Amino acid sequence: MDKRVPSIADHLLLIEQELRLRGWWEERAPSAQALASVEPFSVDTLSFEQWLQWVFLQRMKMILENDLPLPNASGILEMAEMVYVDRVQETTRLRQLLAEFDELIRSSR
Questions:
Q1: Do 94 and 80 contact (CB within 8 A), yes or no?
Q2: In sequence order, what DSSP letters do the residues of 54-98 get, joined into one string?
Q3: pLDDT score at 100
Q4: Which CATH number fits domain 5-28+39-106: 2.40.110.10, 4.10.910.10, 3.30.1360.120, 1.20.1440.40?
Q5: Span 88-103, mean pLDDT?
Q6: Half-sphere exposure of 3 (CA within 13 A, CB side)
Q7: Which of 7, 37, 58, 103 could cross-link 45 (Cys pair, CB 3.0–4.6 Å)?
Q8: Helices 76-83 and 92-106 sit at what angle, rounded to 10 degrees?
Q9: How far apart are CA 57 and CA 55, in angstroms?
Q10: How open is the CA angle 28-32-35, to the nearest 5 degrees?
Q11: How does DSSP classify residue 30?
C-alpha cells in the first residue's frame, strides 16, 4: 500500500467537511448527463463545488478503497484559484486543503 493513503484519506474527509461547513454539500446528485461531462472539472455542467463532491471525492474514494494507483499529478488548487478569485477569504480553508492534497499527490511514495 502506498504510504500516502492514510494522509490522502484524511484530506478527503477534511475537504468534505469544509464543503459541508460552507453549505456547499448537496444531498441529491446532479443528473447522469451532467456527471458524464468530458470537460476538465466538468466546467460545462457542474459548479466547482459539485465537481469536488460528485466527481473528485467519489473517484478518489474509489481509488483508495480498491487499492488502485494514485494519480501522478494533481492541479486542483490551480482550478480553485481561478474559480474563487472573487471569494478569496470565504474559500481560504478549502484552498489550503486542496493545496495540501496536491502536495500529497506530488510527494514521493
A1: yes
A2: IIIHHHHHHHHHTTPPPPS---HHHHHHHHTTT-TTTTHHHHHHH
A3: 97
A4: 1.20.1440.40
A5: 97
A6: 4
A7: 37
A8: 160
A9: 6
A10: 85
A11: P
- What is the value of pTM for the model shown? 0.94
CA atoms within 13 A on the CB side of 47: 9
Tell me the domain boundaries of the chain: 5-28+39-106
Q: Mind listing the pLDDT tens digit for each residue in 9-65?
A: 999 999 999 999 999 999 999 999 999 999 999 999 999 999 999 999 999 999 999
Q: Which residue matches cell numbers 502506498?
A: 2
Q: Which three cell numbers stand for residue 1?
A: 500500500
Cα–Cα separations (whole angstroms), residue 45 to 24, 37, 39, 82, 93? 16, 7, 9, 17, 25
Q: What length does the chain have?
A: 109
Nearest CA-CA partner of 90 in 42, 46, 49: 49
8: its cell numbers: 490522502
